[in-house]
Amino acid sequence: MDSISRNGNEMTTLKTFDARDFRAALGRFATGVTVIATAHDGEIYGMTANAFMSVSLDPPLVLVAVGHHAAMYKRLLASQRYGVSVLSETQAALSDHFARRRVEHPTFEFIDKQGAPVLRDAAAHLVARIVDAHPAGDHTLFIGHVEFLEWTDAKPLLFFGGKYHRLKTESAKYEAQQKDFSRYLLED
Questions:
Q1: Which of 92, 148, 158, 156 is CA-nearest to residue 125?
Q2: Phi-psi region of 136 (alpha: psi -120 to 50; beta: other; left: phi over 0)
Q3: Annotated domain spans of the chain
Q4: How many helices (H) and strands (E) does the chain have?
Q5: What residues contact residue 51 under an 8 Å CB cut-off, 6+ apart?
Q6: pTM for the whole thing?
Q7: CA 19, 103, 97 angle in degrees (round to 5)?
């Protein structure tokens, strides 16, 4: 094992690594946070997922990775539809709740959009019908055809380095020089 440094801004290089090292390296990739939800046998089930991404614009496809041991895995196979709630920066407690972290019971409400459950007050909602599933290691990649979407101007909840973060708006002078999509910085 080669290790240059695990501190500061110096690069860490490992020739061999374990799952903890793999997770630490991937934790350097900032993501948004979603709750994937589905209805099955009259009940609504949700799970936090940051392994979510767009796949195609035409047709509109998204992907969510779900572990084979997750309760959601069998429910998605049965329901074949899922709602995606892109969490806003005020919804970290919901992320923790649906990740099964111990938190006091947060207040939340699922609403129906095109026959799939999504969380009220999320930054965006998508509803997808599963069109393909690809086993990949200990997860399956569920590809969904998006049948419904809506969004607000709410800032998203971000996850980076094992912690939640928020976007910070730069000064008006800086904003005037940048395009809309690049006017934010990460804030601890």
A1: 148
A2: beta
A3: 22-187
A4: 4, 13
A5: 64, 65, 139
A6: 0.80
A7: 65
Find out whether 3 and 14 touch, Cβ atoms under 8 Å: yes
Enumerate the β-bridge partners of residue 143: 63, 132
Beta strands at 81-86 and 110-113: parallel, antiparallel or unpaired: unpaired
Q: Which CATH superfamily is domain 22-187 in?
A: Electron Transport, Fmn-binding Protein; Chain A (2.30.110.10)
Q: Please, are residues 97 and 45 in contact by the beta-carbon 8 Å criterion?
A: no
**80 vs 5 pLDDT, higher one:** 80
**What is the per-residue pLDDT across 34-70, written as a single tens digit (0 to 9) for each?**
999 999 888 999 999 989 999 999 999 999 999 999 9
Q: How far is CA 165 from CA 14, 73, 90, 116, 119, in A?
A: 27, 28, 11, 28, 20
- 172, amino acid identity: A
The phi and psi torsions of 119 (rounded to 5 degrees) equal -85, 130
How many angstroms separate the Cα of 24 from the Cα of each of 12, 18, 20? 11, 10, 6
Report the run of H or E that residue 22 belongs to, with start and end: helix 19-26
Confidence bin at 1 (pLDDT 50/70/90) = very low
